[in-house]
Amino acid sequence: MEGSAPRRTRIQQEKRELILEAALEVFSANGFRGSTIDQIAEAAGMSKPNLLYYFRRKEDIHETLMQRLLDTWLAPLRELDDIGDPLTELRSYIRRKLEMARDFPRESRLFANEILQGAPRIKPMLEGELKTLVDEKAAVIKGWMRAGKIARTDPWHLIFSIWATTQHYADFDVQVRAVLGADRGGDGRFEDAARFLEQLFLDGLKPKG
Amino acid sequence: MEGSAPRRTRIQQEKRELILEAALEVFSANGFRGSTIDQIAEAAGMSKPNLLYYFRRKEDIHETLMQRLLDTWLAPLRELDDIGDPLTELRSYIRRKLEMARDFPRESRLFANEILQGAPRIKPMLEGELKTLVDEKAAVIKGWMRAGKIARTDPWHLIFSIWATTQHYADFDVQVRAVLGADRGGDGRFEDAARFLEQLFLDGLKPKG
DNA sequence: CTAACGTTTGTCCAACCGGTCAAAATTTGC
DNA sequence: GCAAATTTTGACCGGTTGGACAAACGTTAG
């Protein structure tokens, strides 16, 4: 069985974490092909052969990183529950996603890089696990629509639009900062974004009355 | 002066176009560092040294491509005018942007790649030309808000959200198709997206009445 | 026809990159 | 303290890549 995790010493645990942290930094900034093992090794403070002692191949690092990423990345959507008030649920989903873009921009960019290149390594997971999860949540949302709790619309595209608008602040950060300029591009931009998105998703742009 | 375009023969014009078309295909699929001159040369149906006769360096191809891209890419925003009805103007801006994502996905991905990597080659343009244009259009939108034609909100983030939601269908195409599945991921997805986005931006998610 | 000019190709090179390997240094179990 | 196991390193290798170059080929104007 491959499933059984190999026994690891304390040093192996620590060094592997160190490498993954360094690799996240490098991969998210340069993409997979744009990153070299030497860069990662240097960022992790070790020599290239030393790094290759812990991860046999460059791709193994990327794969491990990607597997871990996906769990945390989809956590907010998993939390979307049928319990509370629908509009409140959606609002807090948007808020959580935006917080992830703010707190884990490297993870967001790593993911974006992978998708942009056609998701060669995670396509099966997108068509399997991810699709299942989204379909499930889309059904929940549809229930809310039938109950008249939120406006009728396409739940899948609704989810896409939440992903797009929130991740934009991580993936396109350089552009957002450049356009907002020095004064408005500071730390406050995420609060501005949160306020804007809340209004957009709840009320749209039509003037009141 | 660098500004004066070098004299070019008819063959040079044609071959350069051929190379740029091939490079767009390759760069948008693999990123800058992930693409090789050989790949581009093969896609353009010529030998590597021959390609290098028309573009001295790999970076020159990318730069030329990027410069051309930006004009066409920002055209929809430039068209956003103060003349017509504000809501109609915004709606048709969204529609135009979505059509660009549908008709020019390679250009969208090329741009996304560049921004994701920190926009090393076009940052000055983002902070200059792009910021100026967005600020100008944000002022127009603010005028509409003051006149009570659309709801009051942050015009910059509104523009970001339009960019994010529309380009998502080009940049994250693989994911969108995977999640929608074979039946709904076909050609109709852009029309579904258009309908959804129109509703989102105009009315939001609150149920009527 | 031919000289000048523009285009194409084969060959080559130096740098880089992913990965190997054996030997040295270090840590760990007893 | 010592042997076994683990970790680290320097040297090396084969393949790839961006790019140079000169020679060959084609085209065109006189």
Give me the secondary-structure category of chain A.
Answer: mainly alpha
| Tally of individual helices of chain A | 10
Please name the two chains that share the biggest interface, counting residues whose Cβ lies under 8 Å from a Cβ on the partner chain: A-B, 64 and 64 residues
Tally of distinct domains of chain A? 2
Strand fraction band of chain A? under 5%
Low-pLDDT residue spans of chain A: none
Element order of chain A: H for helix, E for strand: HHHHHHHHHH
InterPro entries (chains A, B): Homeodomain-like_sf, HTH-type_TetR-like_transc_reg, HTH_TetR, Tet_transcr_reg_TetR-rel_C_sf, Tscrpt_reg_YcdC_C
Organism (chains A, B): Mesorhizobium atlanticum
GO molecular function (chains A, B): DNA-binding transcription factor activity; transcription cis-regulatory region binding
DNA-binding region (chains A, B): 36-55
Offer a quick outline of the entry:
Chain A has 209 residues and is an all-alpha fold. In chain A, 74% of the residues lie in helices and 0% in strands. In chain A, helix 4 (58-79) runs antiparallel to helix 5.
Task: Give a topology summary.
The structure is a homodimer of 209-residue chains.
Chain A: H1 10-30, H2 37-43, H3 48-54, H4 58-79, H5 86-103, H6 105-116, H7 123-146, H8 155-171, H9 173-184, H10 189-203
Helix pairs in contact in A: 1-2, 1-4, 1-6, 4-5, 5-8, 5-10, 6-8
The structure holds a DNA duplex (30 and 30 nucleotides).
